[in-house]
Amino acid sequence: MSASITIRDVGKRYQSRQGEVVALADVNLTVQAGEFMCIVGPSGCGKSTLLRMLAGIGSYDAGSIDLGSGAGGSRPLTAMVFQEYALFPWRTVLENVAFGLEMRNVPRQARRAVALDYLAKVGLARFAGAFPHQLSGGMKQRVAIARALATGPDILLMDEPFAALDAQTRYLMQEELLRIWEAERKTVVYITHSLEEAVLLGDRVALMTARPGRIKEVYPIDLPRPRHLALRTTVEFNRLVQTIWDDLVEEVNAAREQEWGVGPAQEGTARMTPREEKEWKSKEATAAHPKPYTG
Amino acid sequence: MEEQRGHSGPSETLYRLISTASPLLFLLFWEGLVQVGWLDYRFFPPPSTVLTVFGRLLLSGELWNHLSISLLRVLAGFALGALPAVALGLLMGWFRGLHAFIDPLVAATYPVPKIALLPLFLILFGLGETTKIVTIAVAVFFLVLISTVNGVRQIEPVLIEAGQSYGARGWRLFYKVILPASLPAIFTGLRLGLGVALLVIVGAEFVAANRGIGYLIWISWSTLAVNKMYVGLVTIALLGLLSTRGLEYLRQRLMPWAQDFHTPR
Q1: B1 to A89: CB separation less than 8 angstroms, yes or no
Q2: Shortest CB distance from A57 goes to which of B159, B164, B172?
Q3: Average pLDDT, chain A
Q4: Which of B27, B47, B81, B212 has the fewest CB atoms nearer than 10 Å to its CB?
Q5: A191 membership: H or E segment, kind and range
């Protein structure tokens, strides 16, 4: 079971100390049922905000989000995997994986069986009785993925799930996710900072603009499946990464400008606001003439 | 995994031995100073004498007479203060409006040393048990309340989001996520509360009791029965040690997943 997603003209504003911030404006995106959609964009562009809306834990104040139809016409089930794992430290691995089913009132024995099944799928059946703090980062994220899959979601939402892992573990997890996804073919919305990751995993990659976030471009990734890490070395793969990067770099610079008042780095120097320049100069002065040591 | 977490091995045993040796060495040192006459035995009776008097009071039932009433007051006051504090703290942590309403009252009254309220409670409740129990309850209440509120407010937002995204709302979100996530902080509050309860009971019994460990210490001082005074001091110290250890044991049983908090060994 998987469901399609139609996001139409979605907008989101919020109040900050600096006044009203438009986080998202006129976001339009359609994800087919069973499609693996990756979303990339500069920091602070509202990717995570958008994902939380899809998960039903964030509100929007314009437009509409239609999650197709789930089983029996009810709201399709979404399951979320967080960058910070978000495992419940007081629950064992098994109890964590069973959490979603517990919230849906699945009887204890049944949810245990399902949870064990998914733990086995991510290779952690041996750790069913362990607590999250006893696991490594990669293992924690595998538990979080099992927790998401165990609910039998129509849509899997992933918010930079592997960003906190070391590079080797990340490669292994990407392969593992590809294997699991190719077996289950769920609808996936996957947020990442890494273009390589987006191209490796996605059927399509959506690029978001700097704030206010909207969809700038959607790139079809016509690379054959099943995919493996070896794909990274192909010319086609790298051409796709470069194409997206060329469009992304403008947005990254725009985001930098918003965030720090710093423009694109040119010839090794970044532009500074007058205030930053003043602070910088005073710091430099202190460095050049440090206070005498009076001991 | 487990190998990395604890540092067991010969060195750990050695350090434990050193930690056990230091109080013993201290007592021996003290004993020695009194024996050679460098410490006045009238004010610093040697540990051996204190131990003898301790045994005598224990066997005669006099110590238990004082200890039992103090324990009763501490436990009653602790329960009376801690239970509403946990309940209110959870609500204040979760409902910002309630927090905004009550927090100024807490901030204004918290710095008052609770023992200073004893005269007020004496006027209100008289010389009976109620006064002592209420004074303890008030002291415990504040510590547990503040810890509980912080516990709820410091829950990682992503845990709440995770709970919500898997369908936990309302009461279930509270019971399945908020409460367990706050438990370590609540426990820290209980531990602090128990410590302050022992502090307050001794103070209250100094001035407003005719039984209890605090009374024993005070009356022994007044009558210059210095040995008995030390027995009282040792008893209250042991009580503090046992209660801290007991709570730590309970915490490990109830929350094997929580980070250790450090208790001096």
Answers
A1: no
A2: B164
A3: 86
A4: B27
A5: strand A187-191
